Amino acid sequence: MYYLKLKNNFSITDKITCREEKVFFGVRQPNNTHLGFRYNYADVENIEKYFSIIPERFRKGFTLLSLHIVLSRPETLPPHIDVNVLCCINFYVRADNVKTQFYSIKDDLNATTPWSDVVGLTFNLENLSEAGSFNASNGEVYLLNTSIPHSVTALNGFADRLVLSIQTEKFTFNEVKEMLEETGSIQINE
Ligand SMILES: [Fe+2]
């Protein structure tokens, strides 16, 4: 399975504070702006509200980050898998018009090429078949299987997207899916 949409939306008006940078890919620009994406460790007011979707006994296995993606020529982050992240729960603060596309791998052999040490592996499109995709709206929340190749495309040619992301390198997509079922955050049998 590639992704799951959570039942409830979170309209995020709580203040998000970025701490140190975890991953950056792209071009840095003046005034602390950038093209590409940037993950920062983050704090958010009322943090317990967001973590309430995870049973308390598992919460230590998750980290809160802010993800700021700016896409413009190229307007696509190519198919890749994330480094040291098995899956993440994304709260779309400012979603913009962006398509997240997942792929199945047609041919395992030579499918990957190194993209960047910090980002992960990128894939040649000819080795992939398009699988599920979604276009998130503001306030929606998704569980994403980031260990499966995925790309991100700004459908208007430009996007400025802000995401609050709860990530884990400890639990698999299916394990987190069970946690979300336990807290009633997703429909069972969805
Ligand atoms: Fe990714």
Q: In words, what does this structure look like?
A:
With 190 residues, this protein is mainly beta. The protein has a single domain, classed as Sandwich (Jelly Rolls), CATH 2.60.120. The chain contains 2 helices and 13 strands, in the order E-E-E-H-E-E-E-E-E-E-E-E-E-E-H. Strand 2 and strand 3 form a beta hairpin. It is globular. The mean pLDDT is 90. Bound molecules: fe (ii) ion (FE2). The site of fe (ii) ion has 4 residues, from strand 5.
Helical amount among residues, as a percent range?
Answer: under 10%
Mean pLDDT: 90
H-E string: EEEHEEEEEEEEEEH
Instruction: Specify Rg, calculated over alpha carbons.
Output: 16 Å
> What would the CATH topology be?
Jelly Rolls
Our measurement of the CA-to-CA distance between the termini, rounded to an integer number of angstroms, reads 11 Å
Inertia-based shape: globular
Which assembly state applies to the chains in this document? single chain
Estimate nothing, just give the exact number of structural domains. 1
Number of strands: 13
How many strands, which pairing sense, and closed or not: the largest β-sheet? 7 strands, antiparallel
Summarize the topology.
Blueprint (H helix, E strand, L loop, with lengths): L2 E3 L10 E14 L3 E12 L2 H5 L11 E10 L3 E7 L4 E8 L3 E8 L6 E5 L3 E4 L4 E7 L6 E4 L5 E5 L3 E11 L4 H10 L8
Antiparallel strand pairs: 1-11, 2-3, 3-4, 4-13, 5-9, 5-12, 6-11, 6-13, 7-10, 7-12, 8-9
The structure holds fe (ii) ion (FE2).
Fe (ii) ion binds next to strand 5.
